[in-house]
Amino acid sequence: MRARINIKVAANNSLIFPHIEKVIMIDELTRVSFTNLEKVLYPELGLEKSDIIKYYISIAPRMLKFLKNRAIVMNRYPDGIDKEGFYEKDAPPGIPPWVETFNKYSETAQREINFIVCNDLDTLIWLANLAALEINITLSTIDNYETPDLLLFDIDPEPPCSFDDVIEIALSLKEKLDELNFKSFVKTSGKKGLHIVLPIIQSYNFRQTREFVHQFGKFLARESELVVSEFRNSRDPGTIFIDYLQNTRGKTMIAPYSLRAAPKATVSTPLEWNELKKGLRPEEFNIFTILKRKSDPWEGLMENKQSLEVN
Amino acid sequence: MAKEKSTAKPSSRSIWSGSITIGLVNVPVKLYTMIRDQSFSFRLLHNVDGQPLKYERVCIRDEKVIDWKDTVKGYEIRKNEFIVFKKEELDAIRPESDERIKLDKFISLLSIDPVYFEKSYILVPDRSEEAYSLLMTVIRQEGKAGLGKVTLRTKEYPAIVYAYKGALILTTLHYANEVTNPVELEELTKLKNPSKNEMELAGKIIKELSGEFDITEYRDGYRERIEKLIQMKMKGEIFVAQVPKKEEVKELMVALQETIKQLAK
Predict the structure, then answer these.
(1) pLDDT more than 70, % of chain B
(2) CB neighbours (10 Å) of residue A142?
(3) Most B CBs within 10 Å: which of A176, A273, A311, as the mutation test of the B interface?
(4) Which of A40, A49, A100, B221 has the fewest CB atoms inside 10 Å of its own CB, making it the most exposed?
(5) pTM of the entire structure?
(6) Predicted ipTM?
């Protein structure tokens, strides 16, 4: 079926300046064949699949650079977020020939997996059409899969810890990173936590990045009553776990600007550090508000690769 | 002894110990600070987050921050021309404290022009109560001050020792070349002799305004206003400085270094 949606895009087609609009038909823009465009995916907000596709088209100029050359893991919700979703590493059957893939043997699955690689707008739109609301990326690129180029501190609270608590811990982590001269980037997870990312030179293995983050967790756990550094304590009520375990080959994090399968259609949103103040709520960053943000706080991420040597 | 209000509290530790020596006589003493500067000091903070700022030595050519260990002392002989001194060279010629207040002679206390007074310290007996008491009593009775020299820290000073409120006081003095002679100021060379009438009138005024010296009549109004302001602010919002825990961060650094080293392939 070939469906049509009207979409407002920038007059120069760059999509970067949403205020300069013209209306074009989306299938003039893409090779994707759409299905079930009226399917409601966020029932509380009444958002249909076409809204999701529009969102990903509009955010693509900011988002694509973070997906580039990375294996994608999708969380798909074809029947909406109220119904069970599923995560999918493998490219589904019937994949269009123009969608790029990356073949890798998975030790956990004990077989070859055909990962999707999203290097262009069409692929992103295609993912949206699969109701892949949540797009996850690996912390390494496909040309050097065993070698991370991102290091992730996943700050993950357990109730009754509040988002204010998460902010406090994130800021104290940043203070330590600053003292050690690391440039760090922060984003909301779109759910309860925050992600702090260091772009790094491709000279380390995952054991090193994992243990690096773990060391920070142990350090913060000594300084703060809230922080726990070990997985076995990560579900203790009222704690904040500095999750280091995602720094593992093949593991992923939610991509910057990806939607979350949460009732308010929140977005994992890159922030400026000075935006991180008590009282901030992750729900403020959602499908409706994100495009109004003027600039991308993670603009320089990939140009800031740093060594992990401390001195 | 009755304690006077409006004086500074004594410090808890002596800063120097040695002996007053007069010829062959030794009076062991300890030295306490006497002058407590009460002027107000503020810390400089960043106006965005209230964090304390520190000073750093910055190279004027490339703006790089220079570590203490990478510095030497230079004496500027002409603009931007320096003679460099190594620490060892300066140490070799530095005056050594011989732990003595060596008094050469006794002079009338009132004969010393106050312009030479630099800083005062309290001397207390160091298991030498008898000799101390004798020296204090006799110079008080005679209205004398012992004049000599003392080395404190790394500087040698002319100094006097005299009696004040039941104690011996050491006051360091300025060297002659540290005090400007007023005669060298041109404005003072054109003074006229006043007339007899003027002198009588001025003398009357002075007589009317004559009084006793009482330093407690004077207060630092600025300091008092600031103290009041601090009290007010204490009830409201204050910035709590988060002093970085340097030692702990060093521990973290070591842990990170080892992690990276040990887990490398």
Answers:
(1) 92
(2) 18
(3) A176
(4) B221
(5) 0.57
(6) 0.75
